[in-house]
Amino acid sequence: MKKSYVYFMTNKNNTVIYIGVTSDLLKRVCQHKTKTYKGFTSKYNCNKLVYFEEFSDINEAIIREKQLKSGNRKRKENLINSENSEWKDLSDGWLFNFS
């Protein structure tokens, strides 16, 4: 069964939080880091993965993404702080194929 993910990306100063959903977290984070697609994350330099949740069903992930997006910034910060209080890039050390 294919896993799905809801994830938070931010910029180096942690001033912007982007929430997304994907079925391939490694590939999607790589796309954000390389600014493959022009959009919100490339415009605001959101290239740091600070939080993610794993799901066994894409529909559950989409429901959770909508729930998280509807929350205020403080709730998002609290969620990140509960798992990653230093807001470190959780993808550090992941192997990315930039070719």
TrEMBL record:
Signal peptide from the UniProt entry: none
Chain ranges of the GIY-YIG domain: 2-79
Domain of life: Bacteria
UniProt cross-references to Gene3D superfamilies, sorted A to Z: GIY-YIG endonuclease
One Pfam family in the UniProt entry: GIY-YIG
Alphabetized PANTHER family for the sequence: BSL5627 PROTEIN, UPF0213 PROTEIN YHBQ
Family indicated by similarity: Belongs to the UPF0213 family.
Protein name: GIY-YIG nuclease family protein
Species assigned in the record: Aquimarina celericrescens
